[in-house]
């Protein structure tokens, strides 16, 4: 079990991560954009291939809250349950899970943690190559879910380029496959365990 703190441009994230049998994590984040929010999550992947099994998220702010329970079944089909209360502009939580059925991973917006799964599955920390992915991307703090295409490319040992929708950044990972530097998003401040 490792405890990690990422400092972000507009907030921070704390996570407890266990990589001993797949990836299991719980975390909390605070942010200021587009509105001040608090976010709590738990994530579980399958052992060996790090394919997402479940992501549960709760976000809240002044006068509102949202919850999302997103799961990928053994048949590859995604299901989600969502709820909300109070006023927060933007899309409602949840989404069309039928568009996600070729996705293996979730991507929790603004969290460096969910970059770990595809990088470990394809050994991109050490193996040259480029891989394209479809993700079940969760917008934060709205918790809406959409299909999102991304590309990861091995640049050098421990450095992987992330690209999506015209955005690109070279992410630095530690030996366990956890992000230590995500330029423009977060930097690992401390780690324990």
From TrEMBL:
This is Glycolipid-binding domain-containing protein. Pfam families: Glycolipid_bind. InterPro entries: Glycolipid-bd_prot_put. SUPFAM superfamilies: PA1994-like. It comes from Thermocatellispora tengchongensis.
